[in-house]
Amino acid sequence: MLSNVFRANIFWLSHNPLKVGNSYKIRYGTTEASVTVQSIDNLIDTQDLGQQENANEVGRNAVAEVTLRSHDLLPIDAHEDNAKLGRVVLYEGYDVAGGGLINMDGYPDQRQSKEPKSKNIYKVSHSVTPDMRAERFGHYGGIFWFTGLSGSGKSTLAVAVEKEIFNKNMNAYVLDGDNVRYGLNSDLGFSPEDRAENIRRIGEVAALQANSGTIADLETCETRDPKGLYKKARGGDIKQFTGIDSPYEAPVNPDLVVDTQHNDIDACVQQIVTYIQANVGLKQHQEKELGGDNCVRRIAVEAGNLTLDYFDESGYQGADAKADGSPVTVADQKAEDLITEALKKITHDVLIIGEEAAAADVEDNKARPDLREVEYFWLVDPLDGTKEFISGSGDYTVNIALIKNHVPVLGVVYAPVHGELYAAHGEGTAIRWMEETDKERPIAVREVPDKGLTIVSSKSHGKGERLDKFLENYKIQKQIQRGSSLKICVIAAGKADMYPRFGMTCEWDTAAAHAVLNAAGGTITDIDGNELKYGLGTNEKFLNPEFIARSASVILPEGQE
């Protein structure tokens, strides 16, 4: 049979005691493998033949029944079935440490199940992908298996966790062992074979739930004994009871250990909920998953396409002025509303800072948490380059950035008129996607050409004595002008080398393109060479300092870095 766990009656020879958790090399027949001691189920004293259950170690010349576990499935024969192959030797290095007989009672064959009886069973492929479900539900599916002895608090914890994450707008369902045995597994008993089948069925149901975007919770023990089972097992009324006469097989490498003996239920629940959010919440996936059908890209494109409904190459009529005198259009507000609602669906608990809301909702701004103490928040500019939009120029963009600890870790910049999109996540690859070809390619900053720098500047703020004086420090090949965040993106794409900005800008103007430039190998710093940070200011206008966006090979003048 095949199994990765088995018992053995061992006679121990080594001067070093055999202990739970120790690893050894074993040899039986022609097979060699590595195993770990999972438990010492019964220790026999060779002097007086006294027995001790659940011992911690086995000394020299002692006999013990131990449970051994391997990483992989092993072909194993019990001694009673095959006297030759059912003998095992344990080694410490090259020295024999002990030996004994293999006992497979209670351990079913774990080989892969046979093919379905019918040859007409085919797996159906779904047209709804996990990413699509995640965008709808706000999180990915997952299975969290609560394991422990009877009475350890598995069901109590699972039900409490289910309620807590449900209150956070996450789909969750507890597959409690007792409940499943009432229905799906009512035909199963508690023999080793039936227990294995019980777990297999629960696992299949949990996998289906996880694939559907649901979070499945599978749910100082004997002193609690809520069902009176330990008492019955001690009295011999229940056979093969886990923890008494059937070993509890603790996970070798658990993902999370919850101490229900010393911590109250609220602390345990919070520990588990934090772990679940860290593993299925979209914040982490947003940083990792900027591939083909990524949610944030789709949101940016959808918002950009909305602005095209209001775009006119002959010029936009009807713009209003904000409190700071800058222009705003219906397209700005409509696009921000779309982005905000979409981001709320995929990251329920992440703060969203949108340009138009920040400019208009003064009372909300006062109630906003101190961003210096917020780990994650979104920065959104629904229409960067409103002047370009109003004039009928296509050099405006939709900017969406995710900020983590004041650094942009994800950025999407979309220029809808040009059908051009830039995106990046963390320190991964920055990309440029063109709608015309529906192809994307990686981008990176370039080395400064021998002919000199290409300087990119704003169409409306591209001149000035201070800028001219600053550029005297460099050999300049040419200057180009672009609007909006495209000034930074062309540096990331290796089309220009530096963008000095000595005029006023806001954090949502630069954050998304900053993430792209970082991933492409460039940087944005203030004039003293300090990396631009986000959400550290105390003012409500989210103003950037004067900054220099540049490729890595561009050095600031001496005294400015």
TrEMBL record:
Q: Which cofactor does it need?
A: Mg(2+)
Coiled-coil portions: none
Q: Which GO terms describe its biological process?
A: 3'-phosphoadenosine 5'-phosphosulfate metabolic process; phosphatidylinositol phosphate biosynthetic process; sulfate assimilation
Query: APS kinase domain spans which residues?
Result: 142-215, 216-259
- What GO molecular functions are on record for this protein? 3'(2'),5'-bisphosphate nucleotidase activity; adenylylsulfate kinase activity; ATP binding; GTP binding; inositol-1,4-bisphosphate 1-phosphatase activity; magnesium ion binding
- Pfam families referenced in this protein's UniProt entry, alphabetically: APS_kinase, GTP-eEF1A_C, Inositol_P
**What EC designation does it have?**
3.1.3.57, 3.1.3.7
Family, according to the entry, reads as follows: Belongs to the inositol monophosphatase superfamily. CysQ family.
PANTHER family on file: 3'(2'),5'-BISPHOSPHATE NUCLEOTIDASE 1
Q: What is this protein called?
A: 3'(2'),5'-bisphosphate nucleotidase 1
